[in-house]
């Protein structure tokens, strides 16, 4: 890895771009990659590259410099070649290492904004590997060593993530009380829907509908004899058996869509329990919850299943 000062020179008009890097070979690769893909952050150099072609530019390392002196020597060559002068060079900032003194025009800001909005992300569907996550985590831990937070920052961190401000809470409260849509939402809602957005109006309409609804029992009352019959109604054992048989198997046991076992497994659990296995052993063998096993063997669940082993 070699650090130093380099220039990118236009062989047609002699204009230069001066830069410095800790690794000049890697920096030149980055310049070529972004220039060839029309994504270089120096629009002036990018336009020249597009116009004259990559074969008319030359990359030259003009001085090997230790890292500590890079900015000082870069500033020397920026001033020497006067590369911030549009007639002589492509540098945008007059100060080495930063963009102080350079400001984008409003038109350029607008174009850059549109470009970023319309440009698809290169990291779409990108999955960070576990090794990369670990490296990032270790780097963040080191960067936080010896750092202390201010009281203001601590208070912000104590606040629950996503907590709403009092203003936001009031807006939500007002919206829920009166269903007040925003101006943008109001423009999208049809006039017909707007007419029923008022909570009070909706509630009044519901009350009116309920008033007009006629109950089949309205105006009717059971006689004293009927009330007494219902009160003293006794279902015979024969009727109970018939009802049980008619309902048996319709939505019970394995026919239930939410069942987590079947007839054979229930019978096997009960047989194992009768043969001396403990509830804990049954729980491990059948991989079921303890209370599920308990209710099976005690006939609190699947009690309709006659396995012939109930004692």
Report what the structure shows.
With 311 residues, the chain is mostly helical. Among the domains are: 4-106, 3-Layer(aba) Sandwich (GIY-YIG endonuclease); 178-209, no CATH class; 260-311. Helix content is 50%, strand content 7%. The longest helix is centred in the middle third of the chain and has 14 residues, at 130-143.
Sum up the structure in keywords.
mainly alpha; single chain; 15 helices; 311 residues; GIY-YIG endonuclease
Task: Produce the secondary structure layout.
Elements: E1 4-10, E2 16-21, H1 24-36, H2 43-52, E3 57-64, H3 70-81, H4 106-118, H5 130-143, H6 151-158, H7 166-178, H8 183-188, H9 191-194, H10 199-212, H11 224-231, H12 237-247, H13 263-274, H14 279-286, H15 290-297
Antiparallel strand pairs: 1-2, 1-3
CATH class designation of the domain at 4-106:
Alpha Beta
Number of helices: 15
From the helix content, strand content and strand pairing, which structural class follows? mainly alpha
* Biggest sheet, spatial arrangement of strands: 2-1-3
Low-confidence stretches: none
Task: Give the structure's gist in a few sentences.
Helix content is about 50%, strand content about 5%. The chain is built from 15 helices and three strands.
């Amino acid at each position: 890895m070699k650090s130093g000062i380099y220039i990118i020179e236009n062989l047609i008009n002699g204009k230069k771009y001066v830069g410095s890097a800790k690794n000049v070979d890697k920096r030149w690769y980055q310049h070529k990659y972004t220039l060839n893909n029309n994504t270089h952050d120096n629009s002036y150099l990018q336009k020249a590259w597009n116009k004259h072609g990559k074969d008319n530019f030359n990359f030259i390392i003009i001085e090997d410099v230790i890292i500590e002196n890079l900015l000082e020597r870069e500033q020397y060559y920026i001033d020497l070649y006067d590369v911030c002068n549009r007639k002589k060079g492509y540098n945008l900032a007059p100060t080495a290492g930063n963009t102080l003194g350079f400001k984008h025009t409003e038109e350029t800001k607008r174009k850059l904004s549109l470009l970023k909005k319309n440009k698809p992300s290169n990291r779409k569907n990108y999955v960070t590997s576990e090794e990369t996550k670990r490296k990032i985590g270790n780097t963040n831990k080191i960067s936080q060593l010896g750092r202390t937070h201010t009281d203001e920052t601590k208070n912000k961190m104590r606040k629950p993530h996503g907590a709403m401000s009092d203003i936001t809470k009031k807006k939500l409260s007002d919206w829920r009380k009166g269903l007040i849509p925003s101006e943008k939402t109001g423009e999208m809602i049809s006039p017909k829907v707007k007419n029923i957005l008022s909570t009070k109006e909706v509630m009044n309409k519901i009350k009116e509908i309920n008033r007009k609804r006629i109950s089949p029992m309205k105006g009717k009352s059971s006689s004293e004899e009927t009330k007494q019959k219902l009160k003293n109604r006794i279902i015979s054992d024969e009727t109970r058996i018939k009802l049980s048989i008619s309902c048996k198997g319709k939505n019970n046991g394995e026919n239930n869509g939410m069942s987590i076992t079947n007839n054979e497994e229930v019978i096997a659990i009960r047989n194992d329990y009768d043969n001396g296995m403990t509830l804990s052993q049954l729980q491990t063998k059948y991989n079921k919850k303890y209370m599920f096993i308990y209710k099976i063997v005690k006939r609190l669940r699947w009690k309709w299943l006659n396995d012939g082993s109930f004692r």
